[in-house]
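Justification of resources, computational component.

The compute hours requested in this renewal are based largely on the per-chain cost of generating structure records like the one below. Each record pairs the submitted sequence with a full C-alpha cell output. That output is archived, and it is also reused by downstream analysis tasks.
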Amino acid sequence: MPATTTAAAPTEDAIRQALAGVNDPEIRRPITDLGMVSDVRVEPDGRVRVEVCC
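The structure output for this chain reads:
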C-alpha cells in the first residue's frame, strides 16, 4: 500500500510572500507593494482565499 502524506496548510505570511513575486503586468511592480492584496485567509480545510482589488 502506498503511503499517504498530508501537507500542512500554508500560512498567511507564506502566501503573502509568494504573492510578492506577482507583478502588475502594466507597471511591473509587485501587487503586494501596490496594495492590491486586500485579504488573505486560510480556511480550516486548507483552502486559501485571496482578495485582490485594483
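The radius of gyration is 14 Å. Helices lie at 12-19.
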